[in-house]
Write a structure and sequence with these properties.
By secondary structure, the protein is an alpha/beta fold. The protein is built from 6 helices and 5 strands, in the order αβαβααβαβαβ.
Amino acid sequence: MKSPGKSLKEALLCAQSEDRLTVGVYESAKIMTDDPDSVSFCILAVDEEFECDIALQIHFTLIQSFCFDNDISIVRVSDTQRLVEIVGGKVEQFEDAHCVLITNPADGSWEDPALEKLHVFCEESRRLNDWVPEISLPER
């Protein structure tokens, strides 16, 4: 895949415009618990805070396990601030942007080419034993 970062940005923007994004570890965990079949894709954002926050690391481990068990594609990004900018907010607005979910539309009648590319990218990464591949988000 040429640019998984570009595809991720496109998928996020599409999902944002259709109100299919969930931002936040706790909000994401609630969606995953209540309706796991509605989740299409998971993005975990790591930063300096992640390295020092044991609770966040435990949450990430649980989210990763849940995604593996429910066949949800999952990636990591290393720029939480850029992720927040893409989803249309300010860092203060999304205090907890360490996890972002893209959910399926209610009517199920859509296909997002960027999201399909990301699913293929994740499948290929898993074949290479890279279970949670890291994607670099494109600059502005």
